[in-house]
Design goal:
Layout (H helix, E strand, L loop, with lengths): L12 H14 L19 H18 L3 H13 L5 H11 L3 H5 L16 H16 L9 H29 L1
Helix pairs in contact: 2-3, 2-4, 6-7
């Protein structure tokens, strides 16, 4: 919010890239809360949204092999520029079908929280199912099989953990 004015500055993209790269180099990000760089994109005037979107897409084109930089972009598109999340995911898999690279990105964040009778693994499974549905819209084809298999394993793991959690809660009650 306090830095969103930056997008109003002409030809700021290279300086913003430098700032992003420096922050990533100096600050380890674990995907748990909003990354500081979200502050550059909160409450951007509509007239500068297109410029901000172009910057994000350009940053992906330049950095799709660097999971730290991709984690920054994904965090921004998960928290501040949600309308770009699907586009960034599809762009990434069009540029990079390496399942190891894909697995190092916090596509759904890192961790979950909740209270009461919430089964966190069910929420995670739903998030992975949403990611899979986006990936399935890609026309890349068989090259995405390893990534789809990875996502399906994540979903299966979450569902197994959810069943285990339900069993544990049932046994604790009885």
């Amino acid at each position: 919010e306090i830095f969103s004015f930056v997008c109003n500055i002409d030809n700021i993209e290279s300086q913003l890239t430098t700032v992003f790269d420096l922050i990533i180099e100096k600050e380890t990000y674990f995907g748990i809360s909003d990354h500081f760089c979200n502050s550059f994109f909160r409450n951007i005037d509509d007239q500068f949204k297109v410029k901000a979107e172009k910057f994000i897409i350009s940053y992906v084109h330049l950095n799709y092999k660097d999971h730290n930089k991709m984690n920054l972009v994904v965090d921004i598109t998960r928290h501040t520029m949600r309308e770009l999340y699907e586009r960034v995911l599809l762009l990434f898999i069009s540029l990079n079908q390496n399942v190891k690279d894909f697995s190092e990105i916090f596509w759904r964040g890192n961790g979950s929280g909740g209270t009461g009778d919430i089964i966190l693994s069910d929420i995670e499974a739903a998030e992975w199912k949403n990611i899979l549905s986006i990936v399935e819209t890609s026309d890349i084809g068989v090259k995405l099989i390893p990534i789809k298999n990875y996502i399906n394993r994540q979903i299966e793991s979450c569902l197994i953990n959810g069943d285990w959690e339900r069993q544990r809660r049932f046994l604790m009650r009885h």
